[in-house]
Amino acid sequence: MMPEIDQYVNATLKTLLYGPDNPGTADTSFLKLRNRLAHGGGLTRKEAERLISIWQDPFEKTIEALDWLRDIKIIGLDNNVPMELKGPSDNLIAADNLDISQFEGDSDGVWLIKGDNTLSLWPMALFGYPSVSNAKGNIVEFDYYDVQDGETPEMIAFKYYGDAELHWTILVINDIIDYYTDWPMSVQRFEQYMNDKYENPAAIHHYEISQTSGDTTEKIDVGLNVTDYPSADVISNYQYEQNLQDEKRKIRLIQPRFISDFVDEFEAKIKEGA
What we know:
The chain is of the alpha+beta class. The protein contains 9 helices and 10 strands. It has helices at residues 3-18, 30-39, 45-64, 153-161, 167-173, 179-182, 187-197, 237-249, 259-273, and strands at residues 72-78, 81-84, 93-94, 110-114, 117-120, 142-146, 204-210, 219-221, 233-236, 250-254. The protein has a 5-stranded antiparallel sheet, with no helix packed on it. A 3-stranded antiparallel sheet has the order 8-7-9. Mean pLDDT is 83; it is low at 125-138.
């Protein structure tokens, strides 16, 4: 129905946000630029002008690439009357020439219309993980866990819940889609990975400075240009990759007393959407 989405997200938008060297630097990743501007303190005029010269054109082209959205309408119901959800105003606009029968079944639903095609956006109403309330009104709570060297989701599920089959709950709660890339590596695999990826793991990967607002323990990648940051810290290839692994080791686990409720509700939601 909208092949443009895949092209836009996986090419245009992804290129802007992450750049060719994900996670990149403020010169190559718009996401890194945002973090630097929000938390990295002030910039000299010269540095600001340099960044504008880098980003103005790709940013404007990314917005222009959304022109295909002009052909799409978002529809909601107001007293069973299709209304176009458009713009910042709360004054709804009646959508003309639409068959009400195609919107039956969910008075709180939202639909996407393109030409003669209609797509229910129902899953967006459940965006995020299911929240579980038991009869006493308790909400699912989580524990934080550091993955140890060589541990797998199955091993942790068995240790924590007594059932290795519940490993999928760990993957779901922690947004782990690709086990090979999203789960922390063992020490042995990490060393092999470093030797395969870098000719010199000890070489400089980038420089970092501390945030000057918010959490000042957080670091900001300022790339390899440290003219404006003479006191920036050196981060080697090895340290950079090790930091990524350390972050991946920090996961959440549903507390055992809530795991049955979570599984039941998750499976129920899957059946509803089948």
